[in-house]
Amino acid sequence: MGLVRTLLNLVWLLLSGLWMALGYAVAGLVCLVLVVTIPWGIACFRIAAYALWPFGRRVAPRRDAGLASGAGNVVWLVFAGIWLTLGHIAAGVGFCLTVVGIPFGIAHFKMVPVSLTPLGREIVRSDTAYPSYRWDRNPVA
């Protein structure tokens, strides 16, 4: 599976990953310049890294995210989330029109949740069951 995953990531990088990551990185830089929007800028860089190499990784909710993440996601949703999500859906449908493009369309659909509400989420390897749970900590004790 590792070879197939790497091959899919390389083709993805050429077809849409580089352009998407560049777009998210530019948005992240703009958010960093406007000091108030630094949390969204950091989220943009996290999404940009995910957009470069999505196969073998997935989006998982952070268990330590609080009310501030929810409020930040509402602001993000109004100003950027809906437009980014519509772009991922349109690209996903476009890729799914061909048999060869179906994996790349699915990758676009995988990016919908993180582009819609990026705060309070993390990017983890696909084989990670519970990314935010620490096995060395006993919650009962």
Automatic annotation (TrEMBL):
Signal peptide: none
Residues in Inner membrane component domain copies: 7-57, 72-121
InterPro entries cross-referenced by the UniProt entry: Inner_membrane_protein, UCP028777, YccF
Domain of life of the organism encoding this protein: Bacteria
Name of a matching Pfam family: YccF
Transmembrane segments: 7-26, 32-53, 89-109
Keywords: Membrane, Transmembrane, Transmembrane helix
Name this protein carries in UniProt: YccF domain-containing protein
